[in-house]
Predict the 3D structure of the following.
Amino acid sequence: MPIRCTLNFRVSTVFLLVSTFLSCHSGGVESAVVTLDSIVIYKTHEWLASEPTVYFQCQGGNKTKLPDVQKEHVLYSFNGEESWQPLTEFESKKCKRCGFYEEDSIKSDDVFEEWEFCPSDFTAPAGKYVRFNAEEFNATFLCLQCTAYSNGSFRICVTCFFSILPTQIGLMQLYNTFLRRECQDLESFENICIA
């Protein structure tokens, strides 16, 4: 019986560690959605008197046109529920090369600015990031999930571990109690059969 109890303790310990690890990392990769909160453009690049077509794009991503943004020195605010939102998504803490552009009817599109757009740029707790170019634009982005990347997933995993630990210990005790009762029932049954 002592050998069996030691084995049960080892199985319970392994169960505790594996289930806690899996609960911290369940769900796979969660994407962090980035939306545009507000933007002001300071100058357009269009030579003709037509209204500009401003868009946002990350390298290898879709072109997201901003249909409302048409005039200089006007603050455009958004609630994140527009049909063209979100602007982009981060699948990890890796940065993306992104920028604001203006469609040009004659030559290649004009560039307001391109930069390395990173989840770590967003500040907690509001998840805001302001990109300012004195000659071109001022934009504010929102990404609540990005603050988890910038704060570090280690803290999240440690918090998860210690919040789930009491439940796992309780399940381990319940399992050990069940095994002890099974052993006692088996011993009682063997004693009855021998007698």
Residues 2-27+152-194 form one domain. Residues 153-194 form the longest helix (42 residues). The radius of gyration is 29 Å. Residues 25-29 have pLDDT under 50 and may be disordered.
